[in-house]
Design a protein that fits this description.
Elements: H1 3-22, H2 28-39, H3 42-47, H4 51-72, H5 79-103, H6 105-134, H7 157-169, H8 174-204
Helix pairs in contact: 1-4, 2-4, 2-5, 4-5, 4-7, 5-6, 6-8, 7-8
């Protein structure tokens, strides 16, 4: 929901940093893989209760996730780059609930619910992208120039990062926060399914 607004604010500095890195031989895929490698550190940090350190890792991962796209935009983004980026995003998104599940048995059920909601949002997001490609739907580029169609939703990348930061800042409330965020994710998945159905019906008329 907030991605289009935030893209307008963060893309200019990211593009500057991306150009600087690209000129020094850093590739977008290197940034992507470096980001997920750093991001996976949240699992042992959260499991050990090092929430402030985990918060820093979340921010570093998201910074590198933004930089890989900025580096790619200095040339021509490739299909494998877009594929690698989304796979690494989902790996990181799964790592955070896993870390909280390992931190306390109390968190386990709510972490599982959160992971289930991520499965739904991920499936609805990627399925919608496939449908858009099949029907050659244009992307409005409101979320920046992407390698494939990005469907809008109540919960997108910005909201997910905000939720992860709240989890780290207030770990004692993780069950409540995770439950609320999971419900919003389920709502988002339902929105995308309804949108896909509407587009599918309209295309037949």
């Amino acid at each position: 929901m907030l991605d289009p607004l935030l893209r307008r604010l963060i893309d200019p500095p990211l593009d500057g940093a991306g150009a600087w890195l690209a000129n020094r031989g850093v590739t977008a895929n290197q940034a992507t893989l470096g980001g997920v490698a750093i991001g996976l550190l949240v699992v042992p940090l959260l499991a050990g209760g090092y929430y402030n350190a985990a918060l820093i890792i979340v921010l570093l991962n998201r910074l590198l996730d933004g930089l890989d796209g900025a580096i790619a935009r200095q040339g021509a983004p490739t299909p494998i780059g877009g594929y690698l980026d989304i796979v690494c995003d989902f790996v990181f998104y799964a790592a955070v609930p896993l870390g909280f599940a390992l931190a306390s048995p109390t968190n386990a059920v709510w972490a599982a619910l959160l992971l289930a909601s991520f499965m739904c949002t991920g499936a609805s997001f990627l399925g919608r992208a496939i449908m858009a490609a099949q029907q050659q739907e244009p992307d409005d580029d409101a979320r920046g120039r992407k390698s494939f169609f990005h469907s809008a939703g109540l919960i997108e990348g910005s909201e997910t990062v905000a939720a992860f930061l709240l989890f780290c800042l207030f770990p004692g409330t993780f069950p409540w926060l995770a439950a609320i965020f999971a419900l919003l994710c389920f709502w988002t998945a339902a929105q995308r399914v309804l949108e896909a159905y509407r587009v599918g019906v309209d295309s037949k008329e």
